[in-house]
Design a protein that fits this description.
84 residues; rod-shaped; 2 helices; mainly alpha
């Protein structure tokens, strides 16, 4: 007996692509924004209280956001999604 073949709906693929694009965009803009904050607070002419704390934390968060961005963009998100 021959088993019937079912195909995956196209809409599910489109939803995954949209989610992937949104995640890549969000992490990219987050990394760029945090990197800008880190750069501005690292300038010598900028003076305000807790400058070094903001500089340090924004640098760490920028590094994490950049790693997530690269990981998602390169397709490493397949580890977090089950194949269906």
């Amino acid at each position: 007996m021959i088993n019937s073949v079912t195909s995956t709906p196209v809409q599910q693929n489109d939803n995954r692509r949209k989610l992937h694009k949104n995640l890549v965009s969000a992490t990219g803009y987050t990394a760029a924004g945090l990197g800008t904050i880190c750069g501005v607070t690292g300038l010598k002419s900028v003076k305000f209280s807790n400058k070094m704390k903001i500089h340090k934390y924004s640098a760490w968060l920028a590094a994490v956001a950049t790693a997530l961005h690269i990981g998602i963009a390169e397709g490493l998100d397949k580890f977090f999604y089950k194949k269906s």
